[in-house]
């Protein structure tokens, strides 16, 4: 598999079958709860802002703030975002820190220091290196961007609460697994760890509420307590 291969409907189904054949727990989830959503987002500035908003808050809270931002500026571009001052961002619902993070991201793009389009041509670790130079963007934000926006098949957001709780439950662990333990458990899922993550999110949401399967949303922020910085 090419390291810049992206997920699509065809290889997603193939990957799910591979995972099910290699891990009985993946097979159980697939047979019990069916195919997970692909859960994709458009790459770009707006999605990075959305993921920043989702750091360490509930899905409902982040979604509400992002909706107010969309109502204020549409489309959400670095230029339009940077024109909003801290008071306006606070009114929309940004915390002081996240307002700073968003403005620094916008400023870096406007200044030509960051070209998000170039991320499409970089391998996962180079994407991580570039994005983590920005204040407010840590491993979890990069992993979610790799997984959902860049559609990288082997991205693993090992600091994600939904993923942690799903692994703990399906693997019958006494305690929440550490990121290092998740890395070890996920070794057998390579090169499809991003697909395994979606399957485990699907399991987590389905176990929490059957209604979640009818109205799937991005699960990485359900009651999120993801360590970010």
From TrEMBL:
Keywords: DNA damage, DNA repair. GO terms for molecular function: alkylated DNA binding; DNA-3-methyladenine glycosylase activity; DNA-7-methylguanine glycosylase activity. Transmembrane segments: none annotated. Pfam families: HhH-GPD. One of its GO terms (biological process) is base-excision repair, AP site formation. Residues 209-221 have a biased composition (Polar residues). CDD domains: ENDO3c. InterPro entries: Alkylbase_DNA_Glycosylase/TA, DNA_glycosylase, HhH-GPD_domain. Coiled coil: none annotated. Its EC number is 3.2.2.21. It catalyses: Hydrolysis of alkylated DNA, releasing 3-methyladenine, 3-methylguanine, 7-methylguanine and 7-methyladenine. The keyword Cell membrane does not apply. Residues 209-229 are annotated as: Disordered. Residues 53-205 form the HhH-GPD domain. It is an enzyme of class 3 (hydrolase). GO terms for cellular component: cytoplasm; protein-DNA complex. It comes from the Bacteria. PANTHER family: DNA-3-METHYLADENINE GLYCOSYLASE (PTHR43003). This is DNA-3-methyladenine glycosylase II. It comes from Fischerella muscicola CCMEE 5323.
């Amino acid at each position: 598999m090419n390291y810049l291969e992206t997920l699509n409907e065809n290889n997603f189904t193939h990957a799910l079958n591979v995972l099910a054949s290699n891990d009985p727990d993946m097979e159980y989830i697939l047979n019990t709860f069916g195919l997970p959503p692909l859960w994709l987002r458009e790459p770009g500035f707006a999605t990075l802002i959305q993921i920043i908003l989702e750091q360490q808050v509930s899905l409902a809270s982040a979604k509400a703030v992002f909706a107010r931002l969309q109502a204020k500026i549409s489309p959400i571009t670095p230029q339009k975002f940077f024109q909003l001052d801290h008071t306006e961002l606070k009114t929309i619902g940004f915390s002081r820190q996240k307002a700073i993070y968003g403005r620094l991201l916008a400023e870096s793009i406007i200044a030509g220091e960051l070209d998000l389009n170039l991320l499409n041509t970089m391998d996962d670790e180079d994407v991580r290196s570039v994005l983590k130079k920005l204040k407010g963007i840590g491993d979890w934000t990069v992993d979610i961007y790799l997984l959902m926006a860049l559609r990288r098949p082997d991205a693993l957001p090992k600091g994600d609460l939904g993923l942690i709780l799903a692994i703990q439950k399906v693997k019958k662990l006494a305690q929440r697994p550490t990121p290092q333990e998740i890395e070890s458990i996920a070794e057998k899922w390579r090169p499809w760890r991003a697909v395994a993550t979606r399957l485990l999110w699907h399991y987590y949401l389905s176990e929490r509420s059957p209604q979640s399967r009818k109205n799937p949303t991005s699960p990485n922020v359900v009651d999120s307590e993801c360590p970010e910085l």
